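During the second year of the project, the team shifted from modelling isolated chains to modelling whole assemblies. The rationale, set out in the original proposal, was that interfaces cannot be judged from single-chain predictions alone. As a representative example for this report, we include one of the complexes processed in the last quarter. Its constituent sequences, exactly as entered into the pipeline, are reproduced here:
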Amino acid sequence: MSYQKSYEEINEKIRKGEAVVVTAEEVIDIVEEKGYTQAAREIDVVTTGTFGPMCSSGAFINFGHSNPRIKMKKVWLNGVEAYTGIAAVDVYIGAGQLPESDPENKVYPGRFTYGGGHVIQDLVARKEIRLEAIAYGTDCYPNRTLETIITLDDVNEAFMFNPRNAYQNYNCAVNLGDRPLYTYMGILRPKLGNAAYSTSGQLSPLLNDPHYKTIGIGTRIFLGGGIGYVAWNGTQHHPNVLRGENGVPQTPAGTLSVIGDLKQMDPNWLVGLSYAGYGATMAIGIGIPIPILDEEILHYTAVKDEDIYCPIVDFFEGYPYKKDIDLGFANFKELKSGKITINGKQVVTTPQSSYPRARKIAATLKEWIKAGKFEISQPVQMLPGADSNIDFKSIPDRHPANGVIFNSRMGGNKYEK
Amino acid sequence: MKNRIVLYFSAAQSEQPIIYQLVKEYDLVVNILKANINPQKEGLMVMELTGEKDNYDSGIEYLSSLGIACEPLSETVMWNEALCIQCGACTSFCPTEALAMDRETMEVSFDNSKCVVCGMCLECCPTRAIILHFDIKEAV
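Output from the structure prediction step:
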């Protein structure tokens, strides 16, 4: 019978300041030195971390009311539109939103200097933000225009709520074409000029708990420099994919939806990004503690970069047009060395996710737990796992009847190949 | 020949139609990259000057004869460490390893002496932590 620990036992040790906490990097050496059985008895928590672009992120804000009151129809924060199809002064600002004045890709590649992610970073940095709103006016909400300056301290609530973060593994992107590509994986030089990858590998949260045995709904996490929670599985959560013998998915798989109070976050861990030719987004810092409940969980946390594989995907035709082009797999040890071999050719690797920052998140979370400031939490519900039968869907290609126009902006722009 | 130069004007010199003279009298192609000139104030102009060598030299001589200081433009790449998130994307585009990554720590560093100002790093940096800096003295 193998040794087991409960969440409560571990929290008791955290409260007493006696918990043994190590990072997902440190655990590798400890296991090699002491073996799994001994290490599982000694270690209480393994901390993980990741810091990279996560477009599916944003924040809900309630501004409080103006006098007279307003039911906002359109809202802009520093010129970046926030979604208002909810209550009168509630909005959602998305990381990828651009100002209407942005030239986009009209001069290719566009620069996308400022977007929703930058607004969120500026808010968290307590910078002054221009708030503009228009409304049609009602008896209860007569105000029709609003123009003012706010800071994060002026709003009632502001909480980050990200539909899809912390992707469990991700594609390595290359370009088989003959022109440079400007993508969400950065610039891809033609003819296999570079290979872009984006995860923190052996430090990444879901790669250390590949079967979601401890990370579930309600798990308390490091989010954007503060404390947040796993709210749900993320969008595109697709756990039933190809996995290695160690249980680690070999393609993009699980995802997390996370939530947390923006007012206690830190602009160093929520950073607006500009991807040339692609758009604006933001880097999010996430760290998740993994309680070592038993030896099996420790096994997972001791995963090494060389045991984590991701598919190499062409972004010239393969990805955008869903063409099956087999370029094999790369492991993260090779990717992090700076060069991989594809089709016999040496290709330099371009990281998108910051490994030093991921390391710092895991170390910070470790310090919080050791200091008794951060307790681990048992999930209230587990995420759909590898044995689930999730169908990864695409948009159906159907042809609505002509006549009723739902959206005046449509028409004539449909892409024909 | 073609050169990028910085011209420094005193308040009196900024009244002179020097561009007109460079084009008309010395047959030079003038491409103004940056200018900060106001009447009765000192100012500067960054320009690319193209023409036959003799004309070019005479043009520069003309400018010097007016007391306008001409200096070659030095462009430098600046790495703002405070904005850098240490992703390392730039290091895979840098041809001279001026921007380099320590493979142990995965941290980015910048060695200005190795930089050839090719500009490859400028557009791949997602936080725009790398900028091109025109090295211009404070107005004389």
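The radius of gyration of chain B is 19 Å. The helical segments of chain B are 18-24, 53-65, 120-124.
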